[in-house]
């Protein structure tokens, strides 16, 4: 892999041990994937931020690093809301102490203390920009909805790219690798509801695996695309998808889909996922809510009181910039929770059954929280939480 003179100096250790190690990670990745060079990135998003997922060995490694990030960088959700962790059952002082230590280690590296899987709500991300993002739903959104270019980075490789300001040029950074490999035909016609997109993604992801799907038969908005991609990234390993006439690259390129495998998702398959089950909590915001979603939740809660815990997860900046919407939700007794989420926080681990409105959460809650998961529309979630 070609390295310029400065890259070579970093690799030789001239700019410190941490930058040397980070360059070694990028060079090793580049060799594995036959990258011809490194490419500058516009931003990074680093996973491995919750103490629940990285544990003491991850914290120990982070604490040894000594460098500054070279591009705007944010973190994936951590295991608790930074300032309000005492408001949540299930966060022990010991966990909070360790989580704080993780944040301190990242802060020393110059990473912005924003912990979210929706970094695109915080900083403008442009079509065609190269990124090093690691949370799978954020990767799918960046590639598919924005038309930016990022591979599905691991935490260490995203951090290495953030510190060096570059990433190996392979995979989805190369336009020729962004062509679809399978067609998904959604056959639901006008009966499709805005809240069905997580279910479509849940079903499609299982069939698609790590291929790039070209999806027909749907006309989603941005929030529905977010739900669709998050779920396909969870049940499959989808890092990029195209939706006919909707996502930007389908308007720029002509994709040849003749001869590709065709998978169909029907309305009955979608509706079958919305099964009924008693739950003891309701969680919304996987991925983190947009301002429009906060508004919808607030409207649905107008005049109601919660009878079960209802947690709504969001990026801290989005909550801060939309305090009226947050207040409208919290008037009902629901909690708007920044920085963390239903999967990476131990706060959900003591529930036995959790209702979610997200195909990704449906896939992850059982394994990560040890709880049963029930999928509902957002309206059903609010009804169950206030019934
Ligand atoms: Fe985000 Fe957590 Fe879901 S990181 S996509 S809210 S599992």
From TrEMBL:
Known pathway: Isoprenoid biosynthesis; isopentenyl diphosphate biosynthesis via mevalonate pathway
Assigned keywords, A-Z: Iron, Isoprene biosynthesis, Lyase
Entry's EC annotation: 4.2.1.182
Catalytic activity: (R)-5-phosphomevalonate = (2E)-3-methyl-5-phosphooxypent-2-enoate + H2O
Gene Ontology BP annotations: isoprenoid biosynthetic process
Claim: Lyase is one of the keywords in the record: yes
MF GO annotations: lyase activity
Domain Phosphomevalonate dehydratase large subunit-like intervals: 1-383
PANTHER family: DUF521 DOMAIN PROTEIN (AFU_ORTHOLOGUE AFUA_6G00490) (PTHR36577:SF3)
UniProt function note: Component of a hydro-lyase that catalyzes the dehydration of mevalonate 5-phosphate (MVA5P) to form trans-anhydromevalonate 5-phosphate (tAHMP). Involved in the archaeal mevalonate (MVA) pathway, which provides fundamental precursors for isoprenoid biosynthesis, such as isopentenyl diphosphate (IPP) and dimethylallyl diphosphate (DMAPP).
Similarity comment: family membership: Belongs to the AcnX type II large subunit family.
Protein name: Phosphomevalonate dehydratase large subunit
